[in-house]
Amino acid sequence: MGLFRPYERSASDAAEPEPTPASTENPAKPARKDAPTPSRREAEAARRERLNPTLSAKEMRVKERSAKNALRDEQFARTESAPGKVLMRDFVDSRKSISQWSMPILMVTLAVSLVISSLSTDAALAVTWFTYSLFILIAADLFMMWRKYKRLAAERLPKEPLKGLLGYMINRAINLRRLRLPAPRVKPGDTI
User: Fold this and answer.
1) Could you report the per-residue pLDDT of 142-175, keeping only the tens digit for each?
2) What's the angle, vertex CA 152, arms to CA 147 and CA 155, rounded to 5?
3) What is the predicted pLDDT for the residue at 157?
């Protein structure tokens, strides 16, 4: 049998019938539509609605609140990732100090002074002196902590400015450990 010679084909090849198309529809005619074509104005309005959907007042408030929360979280993460703040957080969290217990102690002292002040003036005076001495201890602790941090920052981050870190340190140091944000990464007593 010759492949390119039609006159040499075998009889078996010629006997095979050619397949007929399965669909009997006319391919020149388009398929029937279920709905009319939208006008240009309707198509543009539908596209605008997909891009900027009209929301109810409640949905708008929810969307705005979630956008504000996402922005706040992003800004918080950006400011808290500064190298000076990271080192400060680890430094404060690795210390055991009286400053972190200052708020609970002061609250208990206030409650005791309210009860005792009506009973005895000498006891009220003792509670007052205790409160003042606690303030002096906290101030001395924070002062020593700041001096140690400045030395540590000079060694590890010599070009990083210290602006704003004193207030950040005080705020973090007087908070209870479990209330600190971001959460502590190091345990008390760990070396940083």
Assistant:
1) 999 999 999 999 999 999 999 999 999 999 999 9
2) 130
3) 94
In the 8-state DSSP scheme, what is residue 101? G
Each residue's pLDDT tens digit, 2-26: 566 666 665 555 555 565 555 556 6
The amino acid at residue 8 is E
CA distance 24 to 162: 83
Contact partners, residue 175, CB within 8 Å, separation at least 6: 100, 103
The tokens of 96 are what? Answer: 């055991």
**Is the Cβ–Cβ distance between 100 and 177 less than 8 Å?**
yes
Cα–Cα distance for residue pair 82/87, rounded to 1 Å: 9
Between vectors from CA 159 to CA 173 and to CA 142, what angle results, nearest 5°? Answer: 20
CA 136 to chain centre: 37
